């Protein structure tokens, strides 16, 4: 029997979730299989090579490039400290000598008699990799990182900005259909993952950053508010590296869109629990969703998660419509006709029937919906 699939978001009250934590370059893994780790615990370490600083020593000393190697007091491979004298000319009869001090610390990587350049590699930069997800280490990749699993409440969003962060879930007082305004952001919300309702305003984002909110989870935002908050337009590549001062996750999309009742209810049920949030989003090849992950303190064998077949359309499955004129509305699949149908544009496409909570049903192209996976 043929099966139909469509892009989907995970919104699960409890599921087994797995993350891989990998270093960008080889290093040391500090955990072993079976270890229980906290979200902020360091699981791997490495050192990133320092920055390169070129020094035009021939010009600094006022000598031909070919004379630079003989003027160097420190050679290739030597470690130097900032302010240390590393080169000196012979002068005339020991007089009128010229010397140069290192402007940075590090290691001399190269001394060129052709260009007169001295290349200094800065001190290695230590890099520590946190667990991100509180759970159990189920595998170790030698020299690279580890795999962590946990039973969690998982909510994937449509779009986000900002990187990984953590904090307790805190309700703002806004219902799922209420805008998140600045007066709902309080001074004691610093470090929390604040749940709003529908649209978040630019002034609320600024207020949240000011009090130190770790993340905001809301239904939607107007692109003008996002531009005002960031100070620039976002591109179409990957987000997550913004230095906005907080992480933002949109559960529904852009505009005046209420947060889905089911999503809001899940977040309400987990208020006070520690969450891991990541706003990184990629909408092209290799889709990456922003996420809110709220671990449970215990593990169960029945949780399951990735073993199920994702994104499969079936009667009764909840979907979100992602095109006008019903953009943002949520309903359930009530019909999956096999035959192609002619659209208003004249094109022929596969369609599905969606029934809303009001009882109204609409026929739309399957490409216009997004599955809400439970």
How is the topology of this model organized?
Elements: E1 4-5, E2 8-22, E3 28-29, E4 36-37, E5 42-48, E6 52-56, H1 57-61, H2 68-71, E7 79-80, E8 85-88, E9 99-101, E10 106-111, E11 117-121, E12 125-130, E13 135-141, E14 145-156, E15 159-161, E16 164-171, E17 193-195, E18 199-200, H3 202-211, E19 215-221, H4 223-230, E20 247-254, H5 261-269, E21 274-278, E22 291-295, E23 312-313, E24 318-321, E25 330-335, E26 341-342, E27 348-349, E28 351-356, E29 361-365, E30 369-373
Parallel strand pairs: 2-30, 16-17, 17-19, 18-19, 19-20
Antiparallel strand pairs: 1-23, 2-14, 3-5, 4-13, 5-12, 6-11, 7-10, 8-9, 10-11, 13-14, 14-22, 15-20, 16-21, 21-22, 24-25, 24-30, 25-28, 26-27, 28-29
Helix pairs in contact: 3-4
* Helical amount: under 10%
Percentage of residues in DSSP E strands: 35-45%
The major beta sheet can be summarized as:
17 strands, mixed
The CATH class assignment of the largest domain is: Alpha Beta
End-to-end separation in angstroms reads 23 Å
Kindly give the count of domains. Answer: 3
Got a strand count?
A: 30
Shape: elongated
């Amino acid at each position: 029997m043929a099966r139909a699939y469509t892009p989907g978001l995970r919104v699960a009250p409890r599921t087994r979730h797995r993350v891989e934590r990998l270093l960008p370059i080889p290093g040391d893994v500090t955990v072993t299989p079976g270890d229980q780790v906290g979200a902020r615990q360091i699981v791997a370490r490495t050192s990133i090579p320092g920055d390169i600083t070129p020094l035009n020593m021939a010009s600094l000393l006022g000598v031909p490039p070919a004379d630079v190697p003989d003027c160097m007091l420190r050679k290739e491979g030597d470690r130097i400290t900032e302010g240390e004298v590393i080169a000196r000319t012979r002068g005339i009869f020991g007089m009128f000598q010229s010397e140069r001090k290192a402007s940075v610390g590090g290691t001399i990587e190269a001394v060129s008699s052709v260009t007169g350049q001295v290349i200094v590699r800065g001190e290695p930069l230590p890099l520590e990799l946190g667990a991100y997800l509180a759970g159990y280490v189920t595998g170790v990749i030698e020299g690279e990182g580890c795999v962590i699993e946990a039973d969690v409440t998982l909510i994937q969003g449509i779009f986000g900005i900002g990187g990984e962060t953590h904090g307790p879930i805190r309700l703002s007082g806004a219902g799922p259909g209420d805008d998140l305004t600045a007066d709902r952001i309080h001074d004691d919300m610093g470090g929390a993952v604040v749940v709003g309702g529908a649209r978040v305003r630019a002034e609320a984002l600024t207020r949240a950053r000011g009090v130190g909110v770790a993340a905001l989870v809301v239904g939607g935002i107007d692109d003008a508010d996002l531009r005002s908050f960031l100070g620039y337009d976002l591109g179409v590549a990957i987000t997550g590296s913004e230095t906005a001062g907080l992480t933002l996750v949109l559960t529904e999309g852009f505009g005046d869109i209420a947060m889905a009742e089911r999503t809001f209810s899940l977040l309400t049920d987990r208020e006070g629990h520690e969450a891991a949030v990541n706003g990184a989003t990629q909408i092209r090849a290799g889709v990456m969703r922003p996420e809110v992950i709220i671990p449970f303190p215990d593990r169960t064998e029945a949780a399951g998660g990735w073993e199920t077949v994702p994104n499969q359309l079936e009667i009764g499955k909840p979907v979100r419509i992602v095109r006008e004129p019903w953009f943002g509305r949520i309903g359930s699949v009530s019909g999956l006709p096999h035959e192609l149908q002619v659209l208003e544009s004249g094109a022929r496409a596969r369609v599905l029937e969606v029934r809303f909570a009001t009882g109204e049903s609409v026929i739309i192209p399957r490409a216009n919906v997004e599955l809400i996976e439970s």
